[in-house]
């Protein structure tokens, strides 16, 4: 007949702790923390310096007024408690414990003047300097925490933007067009042995005009294609353009009866 | 306990500015805890109030199908739109050569251009030239596939300050004496031949 | 031809609301074409004018290191914050202390940070600070291993609504200075505010 029973409360007895050879009968009075919570408590600190600052602040005194002996006792008591409870503790804490012990023991010795002029740095001064610097940084951290922050105290105000203005056209000077043509011509003459013949531009332009004026399935007489305002040269150009279009198979010329009007129409793809 | 009018207006205004999309009445109401939530009617009144407070400012409240949102004032859209305007794109060498060929050899098909340039002409180039209204299709060549025939336009002449294509220097001249011609072409309105 | 005051105000306001980041005076001036561009002084006056027009509204004009931007009014932040499901992220003490150290003692190496805080700095913290673009490597210390030197960024200032590091309260008050012996340790922060 099994009976569920609560496991007996683990009573953690703190064994005798020796600090600097002197046994500590009891933990400092301010260590109220139940042993199970000690790890959590210690976790709240950002390392031995942070922990020391906590111990100093609790005494409500300036860092420079610190009684190192008392501080050492408190510090070592916590560290020993952690160690005895087999709780993991960063090595930094042990190094600090050793440093504190050294400072405390030095304080008991008479000050020995070094032989040379150089000053030997007092480890106590060095420690206090570090504590002060770290305290400043903690103040700085508080200043940053106190700042209004984007995404917490204020948010970006952003409203719908208008459409982007149309992209402007790049400038294309005539010179660039001409140099491009020259470049094409240069390449063509390098590439090909036969001379590419070019008709006068006016004929080419007229060919475009004629193609535009002619509608599929509709025939116009040659005279329809002439412009009254144009000179004889105009007639010649139109005639040459028409012949060129015939040659390129773009238009057909039709004459339904002898001496009848010459009809010009777009070549029908189906015929 | 109801929130005072001015605080309610401030909250709604801030929420609409913080959210980058239109907000429905429901979503606006969702900001408030039960005891402070305004009625839909009061919300509407607040929105109307905000709307009229935008008179002459750089933004205005707009009601769309999905709710309310702030947009920039239309009267300054042209200025603000410049912020996103892309810089003019330079014309590629291929584009300028294609345009030159169409100008001198029109009407031509894409195939004609390709056979002269010795490389294929991208559709992008033809599209740009057509969008720019510099060239257009004037017919189709009656060969298999009926390829489009391209020619330059009046806008092309206008752009380069030409009255007619005749004013473009003849090809032999370009080949022989480009520097001189370019000097002349710098003043397009003078016309090459006139 | 100068733009009238009210149009100028409208344009600047619209631009600042439409752009998703702080805008410098130069960028604001860039909206205008040469003939309509206001002087920097007139721009500043317009910004001051806009700033005062935000009294009691849901938004306000904030000047940070990178320029001006509109943000929602802090007095309604609690309401606006409810629009997002997730509460703002809480930063660990280690992260804020590391950030403070870099802000107040920059440029510093990771070794400097570790020796002041008395514990090692996790790579995760440095990565988070760099990912948020709050700190960046500005150089390398010429000692063995050439460790990276970290400094805070403009984005850091922007995020905390600061125009410059000077606006952070000093942490080296003269009255709490240590005796002469420690004077040397105070020097490095001279560089913080420059």
Write the layout of secondary structure elements.
The complex is a heterotrimer, with one copy of chain A (271 residues) and two copies of chain B (194 residues).
Chain A: E1 17-19, E2 22-24, H1 35-43, H2 48-58, H3 68-84, H4 91-108, H5 123-146, H6 174-191, H7 201-213, E3 219-221, H8 232-247, E4 251-254, E5 263-266
Antiparallel strand pairs in A: 1-2, 3-5, 4-5
Chain B: H1 5-18, H2 25-29, H3 40-52, E1 59-64, E2 67-72, H4 77-81, H5 93-105, H6 110-117, H7 123-131, E3 135-140, E4 148-152, H8 154-159, H9 171-176, H10 178-185
Antiparallel strand pairs in B: 1-2, 3-4
How would you characterize this protein structure?
The complex is a heterotrimer, with 1 copy of chain A (271 residues) and 2 copies of chain B (194 residues). Chain A has 8 helices and 5 strands. With 271 residues, chain A is mainly α. Chain A has a 3-stranded antiparallel beta sheet. In chain A, strands 1-2 form a two-stranded antiparallel ribbon. The radius of gyration of chain A is 51 Å and the shape is rod-shaped. The termini of chain A are far apart. Mean pLDDT of chain A is 76; it is low at 1-20. In chain B, helix 1 (5-18) crosses helix 3 and helix 5 crosses helix 7. Chain B is 45% helix and 12% strand. Chain B is built from 10 helices and 4 strands; from the N terminus they run H-H-H-E-E-H-H-H-H-E-E-H-H-H. Chain B has 2 domains: 5-81, Orthogonal Bundle (Arc Repressor Mutant, subunit A), CATH 1.10.10.10; 93-184, Arc Repressor Mutant, subunit A (Orthogonal Bundle), CATH 1.10.10.10. In chain B, strands 1-2 form a two-stranded antiparallel ribbon. In chain B, strands 3-4 form a two-stranded antiparallel sheet. At the A-C interface, helix 2 and helix 5 of A face helix 1, strand 2, helix 4, helix 5 and helix 6 of C.
